[in-house]
Prior knowledge:
The complex is a heterodimer.
Chain A: E1 2-11, H1 13-25, H2 27-30, E2 33-39, E3 43-46, H3 57-63, E4 66-69, E5 77-79, E6 82-89, H4 96-114, E7 119-121, E8 125-128, E9 131-141, E10 144-152, H5 157-163, H6 172-182, H7 195-209, E11 213-216, H8 221-235, H9 238-241
Parallel strand pairs in A: 1-2, 1-11, 3-4
Antiparallel strand pairs in A: 2-6, 3-5, 6-10, 7-8, 8-9, 9-10
Chain B: E1 7-15, E2 19-27, E3 30-38, E4 41-43, H1 47-54, H2 63-70, E5 75-77, H3 81-93, E6 96-99
Antiparallel strand pairs in B: 1-2, 1-6, 2-3, 4-5
Helix pairs in contact in B: 2-3
Amino acid sequence: xxxxxxxxxxxxxxxxxxxxxxxxxxxxxxxxxLRLYGWLPPAVSIGYFQSMExxxxxxxxxxxxxxxxxxxxxxxxYHKYELTYSIVMPPPPGKILESYRIIxxxxxxxxxxxxxxxxxxxINDIIVEGKKISGNAQTRKYGGLLQHGTLxxxxxxxxxxxxxKVPQEKMRDKIIKSVKxxxxxxxxxxxxxxxxxxxxxxxxxxxxxxxxHLYEENLSQKVLSYAKHLEVNKYATRxxxxxx
Amino acid sequence: MQQGSGISRGKAVxxxxxxxxxxxxxxxxxxxxxxxxxxxFLHPExxxxxxxxxxxxxxxxxxxxxTARVLKNAEYVGIDVSSIAKTVEEAWKxxxxxxxxxxxQ
Lengths: 244, 105
């Protein structure tokens, strides 16, 4: 497979989600694409099925953190000390849920190159020494597959939980402690890899896992224009972000 | 106060590694409004709105049957037909009356 790779920078949440969808929408014209990006300002994304009530929206506003609903399922993610990937490609044969793993192999390969032995856990997590380092989510639309996910460079669970509501406030400390025990990052594992270095490792990891040949090419005006349309008319709107 | 008739609202959460949250308004044992949220996966995603719409006006006893029909060809993780039905039932058990007027004809 020929796989375009885009070493993107850090962008606003609405643009990131809009560009992912635009790439999926244009898959047939532009071909399989891997985009490696970050979030600036930092953002909390929630899964398609979640309620925005999960997020302390007021606190996010105070902290200058974007909040956004993804097109994909899964849980809330705090995007700050991490690298996010998105890949669009034709769906492989077989069950949707099986294809999560085909793509997650790219992250495992990337981690392997850094000297981190990782494995899949459940359908959408990647773990190292039993702790989560990556979460992933997929959707199928417009005849294509979009999967995106994160790889934690560092993690600040306390900061994350200032932005997330918990079911019972009296349980907050216990929940935070439990999450700290279940989550890790490259820094926690003693790997001082920066964002740009990690982009290269991820590109190589996906190339290996998908047996793909990578090439770099700028995005077409068509893809960017439609992303702009989606940014303004979908992902930046209250109608979308607070729809559930 | 909980009664079999009247308008009531109930919420319940089902945990199975992922969460399913139900927030529903009932008229007696009939669903008047329902929101199904959580961190599960369901393909295609729009099935959730289809399911919420399909459950409107449905009696508790028929929730499982209707859910099974809507989700027939869907793929999912952290959510399934019986956990949805159980959580709706749990929400009904936990309901609080919001008006004593029974609007069912």
